[in-house]
Amino acid sequence: MKLLVTFSRKEGKKPIIAQVVKDTGVLVNVERALIDSSEGEALIDIPDESCRVVKDRLAALGATVRILEEEILLDETECVECGACISICPQEVFTFDEEWRLQMDAKKCVLCGRCIEICPHRALSRRGGG
Ligand code: SF4
Ligand code: SF4
Q1: Is the CB–ligand 1 distance for residue 123 below 6 Å?
Q2: How far apart are CA 82 and CA 117, in angstroms?
Q3: How many structural domains does the chain have?
Q4: Which domain does 57 fall in, by range?
Q5: Candidates 75, 124, 125, 126: which one to mutate for ligand 1, based on the most atoms within 8 Å of Cβ?
Q6: For residue 29, what is the domain's CATH number?
Q7: How far apart are CA 80 and CA 57, in angstroms?
Q8: Looking at the chain, which terminus has fewer C-beta neighbours within 10 angstroms, N or C?
Q9: Nearest-angstrom CA–CA distance, 120 and 88
Q10: Ligand nearest to the CA of 86
Q11: pLDDT by residue for the chain (130 residues), tens digit each?
């Protein structure tokens, strides 16, 4: 399950994700992080069964947590197998199979949206949201 975590750094530069790992014992996979001097945003992936304990601990540490239920959808009828999404995706979500048909490993996606913007046939879109 993916969580979008937003936190302030004004009260010191505490490593909030590391603290949550230490406190909960849950292995947190940080998929994307944008941190400046005043605030940070991180996209993390955790096991579904650990969602509540991690979310509660993050909230107790002052972070705002949003559960991301979005996913990238591929409309195979629109895809022309141009490969543009393969080139732009930072997570290697897309590959061609032996017959040069586009394959997607959605579990690797960090929802950056670059593939949607670049697709010349509007074959990619976001679904869901939370
Ligand atoms: S960019 Fe769009 S049309 Fe090109 S391979 Fe990817 S999904 Fe298909
Ligand atoms: S949203 Fe970003 S990470 Fe996800 S498939 Fe598209 S380019 Fe890759």
Answers
A1: yes
A2: 14
A3: 2
A4: 2-68
A5: 124
A6: 3.30.70.260
A7: 45
A8: C
A9: 13
A10: 1
A11: 889 999 887 656 678 899 999 999 999 999 888 878 778 889 999 999 999 999 999 999 999 998 888 889 999 999 999 999 999 999 899 999 999 999 999 888 888 899 999 999 999 999 875 4
